[in-house]
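Action item from last week, closing it out:
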Amino acid sequence: MAKYHPLKGNFSVGTTLYIDTEAKVTDLFETATHRIKAARNLLNSVTCLCVKDAEGHDLEHFANAAHILIQDGCDALDTLGWQLEKIAR
């Protein structure tokens, strides 16, 4: 496996963001936890938002930010799983 794996949340023409597949499992777990909790908190804020007061693309912006955070967290969890598989062998 390559040392750096592209994040699935790359939205540019070329791949620009990567995750270190050889990172320590504790770092991968911390990264995943931080991003998923940030997305949870962002979505919690949306639940407090009155839809009639939302302007233009507010909900779209919240959803996009949450999607990126959750996807990055999932990519970190995938990499953590690969690391744990290696350890289990």
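Closing note: Residues 23-88 form one domain.
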